[in-house]
Amino acid sequence: MTVKRQGPEELLGLNKFTVDxxxxxxxxxxxxxxxxxxxxxxxxxxxxLYTLKDGEINFDYAGCLECGTCRVMxxxxxxxxxxxPRGTFGVAFRGG
Amino acid sequence: xxxxxxxDAIIIGAGPAGIACAYLLAxxxxxxxxxxxxxxxxxxxxxxxxxxxxxxxxVEEGLTKAAEEALERKVVREQITMMDGDKAITIDYHDxxxxxxxxxSYTILRAVFDEWFAAQAEAExxxxxxxxxxxxVIEKDGRIIGVKAGEDEMYADVVIAxxxxxxxxxxxxGLRGELPAHSVGVGVKEIIELPPKTIEERFxxxxxxxxxxxxxxxxxxxxxxxxxxxNKDSVSLGVVFSPEQAAKNGKKIHEIFQDYKMSPAIYxxxxxxxxxxxxxxxVPEEGLRGVPKKLFRDGLVLVGDAAGFGINMxxxxxxxxxxxxxxxxxxxxxxAAEKVSDVGPAYMKELDNMRLIPNMKAVAGFPDILTLPxxxxxxxxxxxxxxxxxxxxxxxxPTKMTKALMGIVKKHVTMGQLMGDAWRxxxxx
Lengths: 96, 429
What we know:
The structure holds two protein chains of two kinds.
Chain A: H1 8-12, E1 16-18, E2 26-28, H2 30-35, H3 41-44, E3 50-53, E4 56-59, H4 69-73, E5 79-82, E6 90-92
Chain B: E1 7-12, H1 16-27, E2 32-36, E3 50-52, H2 54-59, H3 63-67, E4 74-84, E5 87-94, E6 105-107, H4 110-123, E7 127-130, E8 136-140, E9 143-149, E10 152-161, H5 168-172, E11 184-193, H6 196-203, E12 209-216, E13 224-230, E14 234-241, H7 243-249, H8 253-262, H9 267-270, E15 274-284, E16 296-297, E17 300-302, E18 311-312, E19 317-318, H10 320-336, H11 340-353, H12 356-362, H13 366-370, H14 378-391, H15 401-412, H16 415-428
Parallel strand pairs in B: 1-2, 1-10, 2-7, 4-12, 10-17
Antiparallel strand pairs in B: 3-6, 4-5, 8-9, 9-10, 11-14, 11-15, 12-13, 13-14, 16-17, 18-19
Helix pairs in contact in B: 1-4, 1-10, 10-11, 14-15
């Protein structure tokens, strides 16, 4: 395959993830998010996991790269919980 | 586990800082436990990147040679590329002296290197527990005496927070506040596989040699830049942005990165390759100013990214070396300390002795240049216009050089801006 422009889902599909189905490591308070004007999360998440649907922010923690950018950029505390995934869960980089 | 059966040291995080510390402590017969949340050491870690080997040698002489199998290529070409659309200027500094007996730097893949390094520490007697997330520290009478992971509690004389840039542990222990957005950059990266021979032909390097390339003018004016490092059989390609400015810019950083990847200055270098991984990570960007006022309290020390140790001079980016040195400094402090309360002050002294703090002090002003907004778009464009003028032959009578150059400068900046930036630049270095 020759390298090409790729969308985030396609790129995340290359990574190895073990998803913790029982315990999302990042949780949003959607009431706060609804009032947030800037919504930087839509732009700054490298994995583009924050999306806007019918005016509501959605977040899919399954493809999280665990960088922490959303945590430092979320000024209004719409992220009510930000932890690393529990041990063994989350992304496992083979190259890093 | 009871407080009686405690470790000499518990290290949170099996990155270079944590492992350097564990390695030296284990060698000194200390009873040391490293707790890593990834399934293997390195599986949560991302770098651009490269490793400056002086730091491995400071951990232990000869370690670079031993690590060679876990490292990628010896960097002999340092490139800076200034991009403007379909134009680009590349400065290419070639120095075979960098290959020396102990090569100055290697490109590196962290999942590979960190796992190797952890195995060395384990061979020396350190206990490496992977797949366990430390949730909190345990405090008693104002001292940190251990860590909590789920239902488990583990105790130690000293806890070393080597848990990276987000260091939740440093926050929980009260040594750091919330990480301010302006103090970090977000790096986004693809690993693109290419046959070694293709890499050597395209980048004009020998079989064990590599290139480190930094690019300006590829971030839509956002503070940041592109990077490219050649590994044994892949290229690490990425962009680092100020997340604050990226948010204002409004274009998804994923898209800006894809633009960089597909740009005429980059694409020919990676064409026919295969992307195998997509990663992202934060980097401390403020240098010494981003280092917390206090790096220890009784029973706890901060090392590596958790301590904010990073140097970005624009053309040199350092982090892994500082992590290794700080981990070694913490180990030396623990080994020398007679009582727990001596460890912190001894660690600070070691950071000075091992020249980490003096290194950071020497370049403490650099963030002032790297926050000049015109560096990331205006000046790369201006430089490209100059080169376009110099190399254009179209049969027209060329404009006189002084007039042409003045014209180009004035097109991009006012004299006031230029003088102001030059003054601020000079002052900060």
